[in-house]
Write a structure and sequence with these properties.
nine-stranded mixed beta sheet; binds xanthosine-5'-monophosphate; 18 strands; alpha/beta; five-stranded parallel beta sheet; globular
Length: about 525
Amino acid sequence: MDKELIIVLDFGGQYNQLIARRVREAGVYCEVHPYTMTVEELKAKNPRGIILTGGPNSVYDPASPHTTRELFEMGIPVLGICYGAQLMAYTLGGKVSTAPVSEYGKTEVDIDDKDGIFKGVSDRTIAWMSHTDYIENMPEGFVRTAHTPVCPVAAMENREAGLYAVQFHPEVTHSEEGFKMLSNFVYGPCGCSGDWKMDSFVEETIENIRRQVGDGKVLCGLSGGVDSSVAAVLMSKAVGKQLTCVFVDHGLLRKNEGDEVEAVFGPEGDYDLNFIRVNAQQRFYDRLAGVTEPEKKRKIIGEEFIRVFEEEAKKIGAVDFLVQGTIYPDVIESGLGKSAVIKSHHNVGGLPDHVEFKEIIEPLRMLFKDEVRKAGLELGIPEYLVFRQPFPGPGLGVRIVGEVTAEKVKIVQDADAIYREEIAKAGLDKEISQYFAALTNMRSVGVMGDFRTYDYAVALRAVTTSDFMTAESAHLPWDVLETVTSRIVNEVDHVNRVFYDCTGKPPGTIEFE
Ligand code: XMP
């Protein structure tokens, strides 16, 4: 039997990933596709239901993204959300116009009919609104199922045709009973039973990889980060020694990180794979000598990384597949969202030009970060790897302001290790999204014992954020900062001052360069 699938068609709204995530939380597999997906392509995927997302446009503007009547006549249940709801009304002959006033934020919605997706929902519920247009007249065959003082039709349904529309956003948690509504849609009209679970994803993916790879050779770049580790373990469970993982130690990793990665994935580790560690530290330091400009540093690290990887790959010879740890937000950000530019500099190096391979495998392409972590746990990867905080590809290269030298790397590694240890000791590690020590290029006068010092200042950073696009500086307890400061100046040579960075993002970035 076919796996249950819900397809979200993306009309450019900001909550589109959330919709997919909620549907999966309800136990049904869900993929987001651009709204341009054709009816034939949709049919070929055989979804149980389709959800049309919100979007910033007006349906009566000819330049806005539209869809065809056919989409609503395939016999597949459709739920339109916000712009998606208006699009359904408009396409099927209803009237959409500018509302007398916009509704924004938490709004009381009166439910008029509970035979469809509002089953079990309160008579008056709080839902999240964000619209300037509204449905003035419903198309034929629809009944109104909810309203607000502003919206005569805050929701409508044509149950016979399997069509459902809500003006508000059930996917955000501000909509208090939104999850129930989405669950009602997938379990009711779509007839899903909820077969999506992480263990079945893992098993299925392993089987699919086996089928796809056959007896081919696979190459994987392993960074020790969550995504590439989970991808590598999935591959190793599927094809064992047909997989070679190349781990480039660029000398800009956190303290002991290279050895930790080797301990897990190397010959003494837990997995069946070929592991190659390339100790390229000196090469990177040589190329970075004298370079102070941040973008130039990033570029050098990215290019050198690819070069080292390619050289190793050449030694292995032609491979059939190259594994990438791409996860779902990367796909969205590079494909549809406007954050493409922000993200592109994050993917260190990009794809190697000179590695011979036939196909790319991206086993995590459909997963969100928290799902990748769940898969990691399911696969038995050590927790400290699974719950690692984000670490940028250029590593400490962007946490050392100005020129990178081996000496400075050692300073920042030691300071950072102390900071992380104390944060964990204080039980704060789960509350803070990202925290690390950086090395400023400032040196200043201090006094140590009877001696005058002229040494570096370390900056401590800790931020809380939900999406890493914006962030707040974390309010760390003073005693923790005090302990960290005193340990750093006492235990790390060449540091005589410690600063705490109180800047949010914007105007600061999380990293220093
Ligand atoms: P910024 O410094 O731009 O960082 O506020 C936002 C998030 O992205 C991470 N980051 C990177 N990740 N390669 C990556 O894989 C990079 O080049 C890179 N630069 C920044 C950063 O750690 C933070 O989580």
